[in-house]
Amino acid sequence: MEKKKKQGLELSQDQVLRQDLRLFSVLASPERDFLRQAAELEADPLFIKLTSPGADGAAPVMRRRFAGASYAFGLACGDEALASAAGSGGGAGEWLAERPAMLKLAQRAGLRNFERYFLSDVVFSPAAAARASGLTAAEASALKNFADAFVLAHERIPPAALPALYLRCAASISAEEGGLSIAYSHPAYFRGAYNIDNAALSRLMKSGSLSRREAARVRALTSRAQRIAWRKSGFHRALTALVARQEAFLLGKAPLKPFSQRELAAQVGLNPATVSRLIAAKTVMAPWGEEIKLGNLFRKKNAFIIDIIKKVTGASAKKMTDREVAESLRSVYGIRVSRRSVNLYRTTP
């Protein structure tokens, strides 16, 4: 009897280990491989069935958009390389020629209105969108149809055919109304992560509409969806927290604040090694149009303090003692540093 319990425990541990290894594989995958895995899941006929609403209107698997995230439509729509990668097949042919005109319509509508009315997943009202955006109802309908088709075509481009920019540059960061907004470069992130409705899934399994083979694959597909969603949501949390931490720098108002990957990991509730994998080789487009590595948005505390000390001593008309510098750091910047540390930082090249 005791032996059976031990076997059961070992089996449970094996299952957990396999799941951990699969999750590690998804986290460690290069962006090209990850996007390919996500696209394969989306194209699976059984997974499509899982994302379709049942008789009660609920789907076993739903996509949930990330709060505050948008799609870098202007960047993508204006990119000739991306348009070429989309090709003329798969329904992309006719609307491909309309890109310049539709981009101008989106610019006329304005970023906020375009995101609210043309990238939103709520029911679209041409009249409401037209009134808010300064377009005619016909223009609003045409822009909505084009935006939907463009996002879909972009997501369906094989990762191997994507321009390198869309594999390394995760998002475009824009400054608006004194704050920052994140627009993802690839629709897979913009459209969000998967959410499993266990009640709807249970109803589907009991409905008799699945074959025995399909029923056996459901658990594997939902598990795979959760792993993909975990990478997407983990990256979104890390990116959002990093951008918020360095908001003043990205707005051009201040230097980088001291921040480490370990601190970011603690803030978003992830393992430091996971954060390292999620941001590895990733870049973002800064508000001033420069592509910068996410790793460059971290800064060691001592480098920050050295810059502040240089600022304090450079602004002073007299030579300051180490004690006076330490007091200035505390009173003006809220940084508590000992006199000995000030002396060490001042002598650091």
Could you explain the architecture of this structure?
The model is unreliable at about 5-15 (pLDDT under 50). Strands 2-4-3-6-7 form a five-stranded mixed sheet. The protein has three domains: about 1-40 and about 65-70 and about 165-195 and about 215-295, no CATH class; about 80-160, no CATH class; about 300-345. It is globular. The chain is built from 20 helices and seven strands. By secondary structure, it is an alpha/beta fold. Helices cover about 60% and strands about 10% of the residues.
Radius of gyration from CA coordinates: 25 Å
Average pLDDT figure: 86
The fraction of residues in strands falls at 5-15%
Number of DSSP strand runs: 7
Structure classification: alpha/beta
- In order across it, which strands form the biggest sheet? 2-4-3-6-7
Order of helices and strands: HHHEEHHHHHHHHEEHEHHHHHEEHHH
Fill in the keyword field for this structure.
349 residues; alpha/beta; 3 domains; two-stranded antiparallel ribbon; 62% helix; globular
Would you summarize the structure shown here?
This protein has 349 residues and is of the alpha/beta class. Helix content is 62%, strand content 9%. The relative contact order is 0.11.
